Amino acid sequence: MTSVEPNNPRPQQLPALRPKRRSRGRTGWRRLWFLAPLVVYLALLFGYPLGYSVAISLENVNLQTLVSGGAKFIGLANYIGAWRGPIIWHTFFNTWEFTVASIVLQFAIGMLLAILFNQKFPLRGVLRSLILVPWLIPAVVSGAIFNWMFSSTDGVVNAVLQGLHLINSPINWLLHPESALWVIIITNVWIGIPFNMVLLYSGLQAIPKELYEAASIDGATAWTSFWKITLPNMKAVIGIVLMLGIIYTLKVFDIVMSLTQGGPANLTQLLSTWSYTLSFTNFNFGQGAAVANGLIVIALFFGVIYLWFSKRILD
């Protein structure tokens, strides 16, 4: 803004108002104060347990030293002892079989149900709500239900199979070497189907209906539309579902303990339950922590794969 005086033909520039500069130091400290609760939460609930697990995995910790302290540092001896021998590798392959079978079945059934509920039919909302029940109840309760269902004395599975004349006598599913692990897999699949269905259903809802209408006009079949429209538009959602499913399945513990406790003869031990057995049954806390830390590394590996996969999708 300028002003011109009568006796002075040259305009005079009014001084501009300068905004007050805020102290960058104060702003930075205020931001740190807002982050402080999150940092404290992560340090106490994640950082300290992880650091303690790493520490005891490098020491000879038993019941006496756990109470009194002064455990001897032994380096990587616990990792060498825990990750060699037939039991740990049998447990590793059990975890691999359990994870792959659970993820494949959960994803396939969840996708079929998501496609089904993406269509309009009577009572769709009620049925969709009922399918969420296995996901809402505690896993221990689900384990107790399947323990009763597969019981050799009064289990409903044996009763149905005998009624259909498929078996002559009851089968002890939870003690049979070839069926015990599959009972755990079926239980975990039953719990995980709602989670897969909800996320995949949300992904289907985000796909424009016009794409399917245009494909239908061009003569595309339902199978062609699924491969050419549905899957390409759901890559990000599928990646999230698979990554979260793998991490959740790797750390499954309560289902196994409520059904078989790792038996018979350690045939249904997973890495999570074997870590517990080493620590609180054999009282070898160092090797138990070494197995648990190995499981964390495996989960982080799949997390890195997911980040790489998601970066490729975004790019």
Brief rundown of the structure:
With about 325 residues, the chain is mainly α. About 70% of the residues lie in helices and about 5% in strands. It is built from 15 helices and 4 strands.
- Give me the CATH architecture, please: Orthogonal Bundle
* Fraction in beta strands: under 5%
Give the overall shape, derived from the CA principal axes. globular
- Rg is 29 Å
- Look at the structure and name the CATH superfamily: MetI-like
Bin the helical content.
55-70%
CATH topology: MetI-like fold
Q: Give the rounded overall mean pLDDT.
A: 86
Compute the number of strand runs: 4
* Biggest sheet overview: 2 strands, antiparallel
Q: Show unreliable segments.
A: 1-5
Number of domains: 1
Give the helices and strands as they follow along the chain: EEHEHEHHHHHHHHHHHHH
Structural class label: mainly alpha
Distance between the termini: 49 Å
**CATH domain class name:** Mainly Alpha
Number of helices: 15
| Order of strands in the sheet with most strands | 1-2
Question: What keywords describe this structure?
Answer:
mainly alpha, 69% helix, 315 residues, two-stranded antiparallel sheet, MetI-like fold, globular
Structure description:
By secondary structure, this protein is mainly alpha-helical. It has one domain: MetI-like fold. It has 15 helices and four strands. It has helices at 24-57, 63-68, 77-82, 86-117, 124-131, 133-136, 139-149, 156-163, 180-205, 209-217, 222-233, 235-250, 254-259, 271-280, 285-314; strands at residues 2-5, 8-13, 59-60, 72-73. α4 packs antiparallel against α12, α7 (139-149) packs across α9 and α14 (271-280) runs antiparallel to α15 (285-314). It is globular and about 75 Å long. Mean pLDDT is 86; it is low at 1-5.
